[in-house]
UniProtKB/TrEMBL annotation:
<dbReference type="InterPro" id="IPR050270">
    <property type="entry name" value="DegV_domain_contain"/>
</dbReference>
<dbReference type="GO" id="GO:0008289">
    <property type="term" value="F:lipid binding"/>
</dbReference>
<dbReference type="InterPro" id="IPR043168">
    <property type="entry name" value="DegV_C"/>
</dbReference>
<keyword id="KW-0446">Lipid-binding</keyword>
<dbReference type="Pfam" id="PF02645">
    <property type="entry name" value="DegV"/>
</dbReference>
<dbReference type="InterPro" id="IPR003797">
    <property type="entry name" value="DegV"/>
</dbReference>
<protein>
    <submittedName>
        <fullName>DegV family protein with EDD domain</fullName>
    </submittedName>
</protein>
Length: 282
């Protein structure tokens, strides 16, 4: 039994990671000035932030056409017996539903879906774990319960400079965005029940980052060894510095620097930063 692992571009796995773990990717797209770009394919993250920095109109994001998934599954059917397809939260995108619909349309291979209920590098943790198990010969019935276990010990928090991006993109309520703007706060956000919600309201970015550090410390005290990712929206120096400080503080944990690419960056805005983790070897 050979199991293929598919995810979408919002897992922001590097090309090297995808090749190393044999993970297949279907891209989402951003539309800038009526021009559509597939993220991770026809536009890089750096190019995206350069293009939109002075744009008055927020770019639009689009999920992959179902036909893209159909084509990918048909291609994989030549070498694999089944597919586990892992996607960003169904609460903020229809990508997961589209992937499942495409699976129903392909008879040559069985497709199993997994809603990460999150996004970005934390979503990528699921894909890498599934790929490692698939390489060991495990099948979907063995892999999916492990992903569900990971969900119970996975956390992610992020801090944005401007809530208007999330509000205009329909990913946060107008009321929450208005309160943030009026009070000049830097709320810590997280995924709750598949959607983005405020976790805590903090007055400054520095204090918000310190609070996330406290949440990491609590997780380390419970689980000791964690896989941790620092995620930035075109502020790599700040992200690297934060990661280096935490790596020296928690040498038993593995750290990875990642990024908010075009699709997620559209909704969070440049300068956003976040952190996520799960227990190692879960």
């Amino acid at each position: 039994m050979k199991t293929a692992i598919v995810t979408d571009s919002t897992a922001y796995l590097t090309k090297e990671e995808r090749e190393k773990y044999s993970i297949h990717m279907v891209p989402l797209s951003v539309v800038i000035d009526q021009q559509s770009y597939e993220e991770e394919v026809s536009i890089t993250t750096e190019e995206f932030y350069d293009k939109v920095r002075n744009e008055k109109q927020l770019p639009k994001t689009t999920q992959p056409a179902i036909g893209k998934f159909v084509a990918k599954y048909q291609e994989l059917a030549e070498d694999y017996d089944e597919v586990i397809t892992i996607h960003l939260s169904s609460g903020i995108s229809g990508t997961y539903q589209g992937a499942l619909q495409a699976g129903d349309m392909v008879e040559q291979i069985e497709v199993f879906g997994f809603d990460s209920e999150i996004a970005c590098a934390v979503q990528g943790f699921y894909a890498i774990q599934a790929a490692k198990m698939a390489a060991e010969g495990k099948n979907a019935k063995e892999i999916l319960p492990v992903l569900e276990e990971m969900r119970q010990i996975m956390e992610a928090y992020f801090i944005v400079n401007d809530l208007a991006h999330l509000q205009r993109g329909g990913r946060l309520s107008a009321g929450a965005a208005l309160i943030g703007g009026l009070l000049q706060i830097k709320p810590i956000l997280y995924f709750n029940e598949k959607v983005i919600e405020p976790f805590e309201k903090i007055r400054t970015r520095k204090k918000a980052m310190k609070r996330v550090e406290e949440l990491l410390a609590e997780a380390v005290s419970r689980h000791n060894e964690l896989d941790v990712t620092i995620i930035h929206a075109n502020c790599p120096e700040e992200g690297q510095q934060w990661m280096d400080e935490l790596q020296s503080q928690y040498p038993q944990c593995s750290f990875k620097l990642s990024y908010f690419g075009p699709v997620i960056g559209t909704h969070l805005g440049e300068g956003s930063i976040g952190m996520g983790w799960f227990r190692k070897n879960a």
